[in-house]
Structure formats: C-alpha cells, structure tokens
Write a structure and sequence with these properties.
With about 180 residues, the chain is α+β, with helices and mostly antiparallel strands. The protein has two domains: about 1-90, Orthogonal Bundle (Arc Repressor Mutant, subunit A), CATH 1.10.10; about 95-170, Glutaredoxin (3-Layer(aba) Sandwich). About 40% of the residues lie in helices and about 10% in strands. The chain contains seven helices and four strands. It has helices spanning about 20-30, 45-55, 60-70, 75-85, 105-110, 110-120, 165-170; strands spanning about 95-100, 135-140, 150-155, 155-160. It has a four-stranded mixed beta sheet, covered by helices on one side. Strand 3 and strand 4 form a beta hairpin. The N and C termini lie far apart (about 40 Å).
Length: about 180
C-alpha cells in the first residue's frame, strides 16, 4: 500500500496510526519538493521532526518505518538518522527537554559544570525525566553555538553563556 494514496490516517498495513495525516504528508511533501526527485530521501530530517512533534515529542519504530516507506528509503537508514541526532527521541519525554551541549567548545566553557549541576540539583541523568515530570535532560553532541558556549537548548530556544544559576532560572520558568 502506498502512503500517497492511502486513506487518511493509514500509514501501511502494520501501522494504522492517525499521526501520519494528510497535513503531515503535505508538510513532508513541501520538504521533498526542495530536492530533485531522486533525492527525496534528503527530506528525512524534516519528516522525522514533523512526525515526532505530532506524536508528542518522540518517535516509535512504526512511525520511523512509515517515514522510510514514504521516502522510499531503507528503514535502517531512517533509524540511523533518528538515533544519531540528539533532537530525536525513541522514548516518551517530558513536555520540556533541556539539552546541554557536550562538544569540546562547550566543555571548555562550562558545559560539564552545567551537566553536573543538573544531575545533582534535579536528580536526573542524561536521557531521564525529572521525578516531577518537569523536563527530560539530554546531552547534545553539538548545538552549533561554539562561539557562545556553553549552549543549552530548551524546547526550540537556544541559550548561550549560561551559568548554573542562569540555567536554574530557566528551568524554574518551565510550566
């Protein structure tokens, strides 16, 4: 069964998820159109992002498989992208994600201190959600903000030059 002609909400025979809606397919198609037809697999990252957001912040294997079918690419290639990049999650997360960059530039400018601070003050390790469910803590391989390290990504907002106190104020402001 092809996605493009599938009834709304039907991904393929194994997954009858309602997350792969006509709106999501249209949004993915917008990204596919940016590439030559033979390179439509280049839209894998925006496709994964759209599907993850629609699924409450995480990707199931069935959803990754659905993206693979939609983009005509091997399932394992989608898994490789989803597991390599820290913006994708394969398990449920809290509403908020606090991602601390652990690249060399950030480490030299204080990210290790931020990581240890979160672990001790909030009693959470990377990949875990706080006991109160306020946020999921993640280490990110690189947030691309080396000049203004250390960098932290909370939701979709970047914060730079953070100290533990400044990070606490941001975390306290999470609803």
């Amino acid at each position: 069964m092809s996605f493009r002609n599938a009834p709304l909400g039907v991904i393929h025979d194994r997954d009858k998820s309602t997350l792969f809606t006509s709106e999501i397919r249209a949004a993915i198609d917008t990204h596919i159109a940016k590439y030559p037809p033979e390179w439509k697999q280049s839209a894998v990252m925006p496709a994964l992002t759209l599907v993850q957001e629609a699924n409450g912040g995480w990707l199931t294997r069935d959803l990754m498989d659905a993206v693979a079918v939609y983009l005509d690419m091997p399932e394992v290639a989608v898994y490789e992208v989803a597991t390599f990049y820290s913006m994708y999650d394969q398990t449920p997360t809290a509403k908020h994600k606090v991602c601390v960059c652990n690249s060399i530039s950030c480490m030299l400018n204080g990210s290790e201190e931020l990581i240890h601070h979160i672990e001790h003050k909030y009693q959470v390790k990377p990949g875990q959600t706080t006991a109160d469910g306020r946020f999921t803590f993640k280490e990110a391989e690189c947030l691309g903000a080396c000049r203004d390290a250390p960098a932290v990504l909370i939701g979709k907002t970047y914060y730079e030059h953070l100290t533990p106190d400044a990070l606490d104020r941001l975390i306290e402001g999470l609803e």
